[in-house]
Amino acid sequence: MIHSIDEYIKDFPIEVQKMLEELRITIKNNAPDAKEKISYQMPTFYLNGNLVHFAAHMNHIGFYPAPSGIEAFKNELKSYKSAKGSVQFPLDQPLPLELIVKIIKFRVEENMKKSKK
């Protein structure tokens, strides 16, 4: 059983590790108050509830910003395979960090509003 994001990342090939770490740092920098944990066996950032999850797969990195995070950016995510609460970023392409930052900031604002209710 995996207990930390460090443990999770070290199990992948070095190129995938680099992408996972890049995503992790991007999330940390844009949600500095979020806590890291493993949830659903995936790296998770928690801030007044689950903020985002991510996971490495055979051909892509899955990013899980909840259905609201996908819906809010559906036009910008058109070129990626996505579902109700997830998007797939192919391993053979650089991560779209500017878009990821927008999604993270959206989710932080959403979760902070939830805490004020």
Question: What strand order characterises the main sheet?
Answer: 1-2-3-4-6-5
CATH class: Alpha Beta
What summary fits the major beta sheet?
A: 6 strands, antiparallel
The rounded distance between the terminal residues' Cα atoms is 35 Å
Mean pLDDT: 96
**Helices and strands, in N-to-C order?**
HHEEEEHEEH
Q: Beta-sheet strand percentage?
A: 25-35%
> How many β-strand stretches?
6
Total separate domains: 1
Globular, elongated, flat, extended or rod-shaped: what is the shape? globular
* CATH fold descriptor: Aspartate Aminotransferase, domain 1
Low-confidence stretches: none
Class computed from helices, strands and strand pairing: alpha+beta
CATH architecture: Alpha-Beta Complex
Protein name: DUF1801 domain-containing protein
Domain YdhG-like: 17-108
InterPro entries: YdhG-like
Organism: Sinanaerobacter chloroacetimidivorans
